[in-house]
Amino acid sequence: MRKILYALLLLGACNLAWADVQITFKNIDGATSTMQSNGRKVRINGGRLPGYLLYDSGSGEFFMVDPMSREVVRIAPGELAVTVDVGSLNVGLKPRGGGEKILGYSTGRFDLLADGLFCGTVYGSSELIAQHEIQRIFRAMQGMHKLSRMMVAGLSPMLSDCQRATARLSDLADSSGFVMRVIDDQGRKVFEVLSLELVAAIDPAEYELPADMRVIDMNEKMMAISKQGQKMLQQMPEMQQMMQQMQQNGGQMTPEMQRQMQQMMEQMQQMQQTQ
Q1: Residues 40, 61: contact at Cβ < 8 Å?
Q2: In this predicted model, what pLDDT tens digit does every residue of 54-109 receive, in sequence order?
Q3: Where are the domains of the chain?
Q4: For the stretch 84-115, what's the b/e string if a residue is b when 16 or more beta carbons lie within 10 angstroms of its beta carbon?
Q5: What are 188-217's pLDDT values in tens digits?
Q6: Class of domain 14-217 (CATH, top level)
Q7: Most buried by CB count within 10 Å: which residue of 114, 168, 229, 272?
């Protein structure tokens, strides 16, 4: 009997270790992303990513996998330790009591403040973030947010204080818990967790780096992006003019400027593909 009980305990431990967790969430533009974890690695798919992002919870490394360019960008933990944000901004959360249950988890409700300015409402779950497996997924999400902020650091002066505050939400997890929903100051739902589930074991290959791609370090990639961006700006003086207009307009884009920006982004994409 003792042997049978021991075998059952081992079986239960194996099932716990290999159970994959998958979270699906949606952003303001309607883009849906998924984060899945096998207990050691986390994979992030969808959204605005050109490919997918892998996070190794053991080493703390991130890998941006881009099938189009056949490149894997390796990001060491220290490269995400400091995030550039032009201009100081005091971002905080003000508790507003209990929030509604989301996906069966209790939440707290908070006002998001930037230098005292109300920027929206955040629903976070302390109950959920306390789960060990969710903590791995949260660290991956936190790294992804820091990476996004690092990539657009040069555009920071063009963003509103509330946009910058929302981008720093993952740094406030000690207060909010795992963020389940964010509603901006205009009443728009800008982020929401749609589902959280244990799924059948995902193919282990989903968590491995492709063997046929070139691996480069983040510093090398950032230098290449910087040079390419400077070259594109020289070839497109209208972009510089638009950035000056936005600064004069307090960082806000008119509908006409948004249309022009979209056109220029498409042109820049075409230029990049021909290089």
Answers
A1: no
A2: 988 888 888 989 888 888 988 887 766 554 554 578 999 999 999 999 999 999 99
A3: 14-217, 220-274
A4: ebeeeeebebeeeeebeebeebebbbbebbbe
A5: 998 999 998 877 678 888 999 988 888 888
A6: mainly beta
A7: 114
